[in-house]
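ok new one. same drill as before - structure tokens go in, u give me an amino acid for every spot. 198 of them this time. try not to just spam alanines like last time pls lmao
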């Protein structure tokens, strides 16, 4: 689980990134429960892949024991590949806790800021941002989030930007950037509205 830190204790991290005449209006971080369904989905896929890997390994072992057909070892990389992917999916709880626990969000009188953020893709779930350790979204006329999604778990996502990524089988993957898993969405909406109306 990511460490729970009061917003006032998060302010010094944001203050180091501020520009002259910029002041902090809101500080927060994503709630881990926002990603429960994605996390369990990855773990379910991990269990399925692990099962395929185990069955494949058993079949290879039986062929070796009863038929002594050593050529079956040429297909050994197949269950090993399934096992590798299974391991990556099964470690979803630790990965999500680490990625989500490092992210920090802020709204100033000039922009929305994301420190150590991540992108979210419906096809690939979470991925660490490879842009930089801080992302800025101007809060001027025409700025602000282009989509706010309220979720059944009580959190909301404020999507500020997105881009298509990937090549080959991952082509066409749309990755969103913004504030994800915000608990008090109403107060944040009000703050953003006040800044955008200035």
């Amino acid at each position: 689980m990511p460490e729970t830190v009061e917003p006032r204790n998060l302010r010094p991290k944001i203050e180091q990134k501020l520009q002259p005449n910029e002041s902090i209006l809101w500080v927060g971080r994503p709630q881990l429960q926002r990603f429960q369904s994605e996390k369990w989905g990855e773990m379910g896929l991990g269990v399925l892949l692990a099962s395929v890997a185990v069955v494949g390994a058993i079949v290879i072992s039986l062929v070796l024991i009863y038929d002594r057909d050593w050529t079956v070892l040429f297909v050994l990389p197949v269950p090993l590949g399934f096992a590798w992917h299974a391991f990556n999916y099964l470690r979803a709880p630790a990965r999500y806790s680490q990625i989500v626990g490092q992210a920090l969000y802020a709204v100033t009188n000039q922009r929305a800021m994301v420190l150590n953020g991540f992108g979210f893709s419906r096809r690939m779930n979470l991925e660490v941002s490879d842009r930089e350790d801080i992302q800025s979204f101007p809060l001027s006329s025409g700025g602000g989030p282009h989509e706010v999604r309220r979720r059944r778990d009580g959190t909301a996502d404020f999507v500020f930007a997105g881009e298509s990524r990937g090549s080959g089988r991952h082509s066409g993957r749309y990755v969103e950037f913004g504030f994800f898993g915000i608990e008090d969405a109403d107060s944040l909406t009000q703050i953003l509205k006040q800044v955008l109306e200035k």
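The longest helix spans residues 36-67. and btw The chain is about 40% helix and 25% strand.
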